Amino acid sequence: MTIKEVGVKQLSQDLIRETACTVVDKLRSGDISPLELLDVLEKRIGEVDGKVNALPTLCFDRARDNAKALMQKPAGARGLLAGLPVPIKDLTDVAGVLNTQGSPIYKDNIPAKSDLMVENLEANGAVVYAKSNTPEFGAGANTFNEVFGATLNPWDTSKSAAGSSGGAAVALATGMAWLAQGSDMGGSLRSPAAFCGVVGMRPSIGRVAHTPKAGIDRNLGVLGPMARNVEDLALLLDAMSGDYAADPLSLPAPLTSFLSAAQSGKKPKRIAYSPDLGITPVDPEVKAITRKAAERFADAGASVEEAHPDWREAHECFHVLRAFDFAISKAQLLRTKRDLLKPEVIWNIEEGLKLTVEQLERAEAQRVGMTARAVEFFKTYDLLLVPTTIVPPFPIEHRYVAECAGKRFDNYVEWLGIVYAITLACCPSLSLPCGFTASGLPVGVQVVGAPRSDAQVIAGAKVLEDILGLRGTTPIDPKVKA
Fold first, then answer.
1. Which residue is catalytic, options 164, 183, 191, 453?
2. pTM listed for this prediction
3. Is residue 292 flagged as an active site residue?
4. Quick check: is 164 catalytic?
5. Residue 89 annotated as catalytic
6. Residue-wise pLDDT tens digits, 35-59
């Protein structure tokens, strides 16, 4: 039955609640077309986005042109996504589409060429129709900027959607996307996924090729997939994976697909759970919810023990390496556009410019040690589970989390230690919805594996997803609160 037979309104409601895998199957069978999906999304965005501000830049004319070109190809030659629409985070270049990076400096920036990741996604059948909102340069785990304003959490619009992939997470949670692309340095995929009740994965370094900028070996930040469930996320990671000469650090796609890993039913045998990695305060309610979720792995026959690697140097190490990254990528902007940068970005760049070689030497050695201890830890445990965020969604007017459980943080980044420690240790990590607070706000748990164990992380996350039974909680209509 086609969209014309059912009617746009009813099919819109039905389709936005379908999984990405189901919609792709419908595309392959010819039951629906990419153009019909774009009509559905345009209608949904018109109904919803004014309440949450997730997708501030739309490019439906470009999307329809690309969809028509894709439809000229035989059904079997349309790539893994077969014409599925996907939004791209507003840090990543899409040819001919505004890319502000959340900064007034780039409020009129329209790149002529797409990032390698976007080119690869489009070659694999993705149709780009929107850019998702992000804080300025992705800095800060609360999605607001001076160009487009704040993105609001659909579970309670008085709360933050986290960041920096907040727009992507909210689009998924509200049915304005079936899949979404994000990026992650200090939890920028994982934190918004947790706050919005969706799934987000920081894959292994090199898993998703991208166009290098400012430095070939910048690997604190990676690009990755977001979705409403683990299988859909695995499908998108398959479409994003592969090695390309333009990104010398990129990894070949695995011989067995990530979607197959998600569907394998492979159960982990030994699980470690840590409420805090030994490095950060955590809200008691978040601890209780994530602990209860981790213990449910016993339903799959796994043993669950409280343990974590020794990552005590995470705060010092990340502070130095993040500051250095800001210095090499943004110092020129500080020199020429300082008045247009937000205070947190200025601080990060200036911290980087003050670094000594000795500090960098120490931080790199610390990261090597953290990664080595991670590898050793995962010889004993199949997976590590840990809260994704240390607090539930916080008020939107707070720029960041300033304190938790009586501990006041020294800067706007420190509250993210529970995610950036995993970044430093080069581990893949997937944030999975695992429950709700007493006030009805989502909580996420990270499923973490050894470096390059992306398939094992996905398989384990799917097992837990099935046990917890929270799949299908999204999409929702925004709950507008003052």
1. 164
2. 0.97
3. no
4. yes
5. yes
6. 999 999 999 999 999 999 999 999 9
